[in-house]
Amino acid sequence: MTQSHLASPTIKSPNRTIRIGSRKSQLALIQTYWVQEQLQKRFPNLTFEVHTMSTQGDKILDVALAKIGDKGLFTKELELGMLSQEIDFAVHSLKDLPTRLPEGLVLAAVTERENPADALVVHKKHLDKQIDTLPEGAVIGTSSLRRLAQLRHHFPHFTFKDVRGNLNTRMARLDDGEYDALILAVAGLERLGMGARIHQVLPTELSLYAVGQGALGIECRADDLEVLSLLKAIEHVPTRDRALAERAFLRELEGGCQVPIGVTTHLDGNTLMLTGIVASVDGQRMVKDTVKGATVRAEQLGIQLAQKLRQQGAQEILSEIFQTVQRN
Ligand SMILES: NCc1[nH]cc(CCC(=O)O)c1CC(=O)O
After folding, report:
1. How close is the Cα of 183 to the center of ligand 1, in Å?
2. Residue spans in the chain of domains classed CATH 3.40.190.10
3. Whose CA is nearest to atom 10 of ligand 1?
4. Residue 293: strand pairing partners
5. Predicted ipTM of the assembly
6. Catalytic pick from 88, 96, 224, 241?
7. With bands split at pLDDT 50, 70 and 90, how would you rate the model's confidence at 160?
8. How far apart are CA 213 and CA 194, in angstroms?
9. How much is the pLDDT for 296?
10. Is the domain covering 248-327 a CATH 3.30.160.40 domain?
11. pLDDT on residue 324
């Protein structure tokens, strides 16, 4: 990965040990060790230690995410750890990091994004097919309302079924024949060394990706200027600009539960293009639009797109979903 910042922080405590907080999942640890290595390379005189914590999301594995709402499910314990000074910063999959952070914590850095797209992974009996040639009634595993709504729109003849658990568990259930195919993030599969299972990378015409998908977000205490400056050294500015626009868009639209919202962003020099979609869970209604502007206005662009989609009926779709989730 290339980094766009040169390391030049002011380290006031040269022997300080920096404690990195991470979830215990295999993917989380791979990501955290990568961050640790990047920092250790740039700051050989500092010590970086990894401290693992279980989050609520690691414990509740049998309830559909859409029902419990996933706000902070994978981040809360780590955030408490930072606020109580047990750890100094936390590494998250950016898409699991809520768009509003607790008082006293900030998104310190965003690292370079992997391919943000969704992938189709198939049972071996379908190796000769693509998503548009899977048979009628094929059972597709996904626990994301965003993937569900968009794919249902294009492929109403499939059966969609929730799938949770870590990636190994999900793959085992697929291979056992419980599903015909799964939709998973390309980035997670690649980081876990399962890139070979990616059967088809879904084009954005079929599935816009989740806000922040494929990037890591590093959170720390707002007043820890030393750690903040260390983390800036591994930030990837183009990814951060895209992430700021995407997160502002989601922040402006969401209403307290998992929502079928997708995005895609592109950079062309200093111009940022953000496309967003809001879809109903049945895939029947969707509103989609694009905004474009200077990267320095990334967050305003996100807000602008949210307002545009609201005028086109996004609020109605979202309110309906929020009511349904609360009733169940
Ligand atoms: N919601 C779970 C989750 N959180 C982060 C990733 C990995 C991909 C990423 O970093 O965006 C995944 C798995 C998936 O969506 O398939």
Report:
1. 11
2. 17-113+215-235, 118-201
3. 214
4. 272
5. 0.95
6. 96
7. very high
8. 17
9. 98
10. yes
11. 75
Tell me the CA–centroid distance for residue 45 and ligand 1, in Å.
33
Enter the pTM of the model.
Answer: 0.92
Ligand 1 site-directed mutation target among 35, 95, 144, 194, most atoms within 8 Å of CB: 95
Residue nearest to atom 14 of ligand 1 (CA): 185
Number of residues that this document lists for the chain: 328
Place of tokens 């314990």: 77
Q: Is 158 within 8 Å of 152 (Cβ atoms)?
A: yes
Name the residue of 93, 144, 148, 218 whose CB sits within 8 Å of the most ligand 1 atoms, as the mutation to test its pocket. Answer: 93
Establish whether 289 is a catalytic residue.
no
For residue 10, the model assigns a pLDDT of: 56
pLDDT in tens, 46-78: 999 999 998 777 766 555 544 444 567 789 999
pLDDT, one tens digit per residue, over 225-241 is 999 999 999 999 999 99
What pLDDT score was predicted for residue 19? Answer: 98
Backbone angles phi, psi at 216, to 5 degrees: -100, 140
Q: Mean pLDDT for the chain?
A: 91
| Cα distances (Å, whole numbers) of residue 294 to 18, 235, 238, 268, 298 | 36, 19, 12, 10, 7
Q: Which amino acid is at 63?
A: V
- Fold that domain 118-201 belongs to in CATH: D-Maltodextrin-Binding Protein; domain 2 (3.40.190)
CATH homologous superfamily of 17-113+215-235 equals: Periplasmic binding protein-like II (3.40.190.10)
Residue limits of CATH 3.30.160.40 in the chain = 248-327
Q: Which two tokens stand for residue 151?
A: 């794919």
In the predicted structure, residue 218 carries a pLDDT above the cut 70: yes
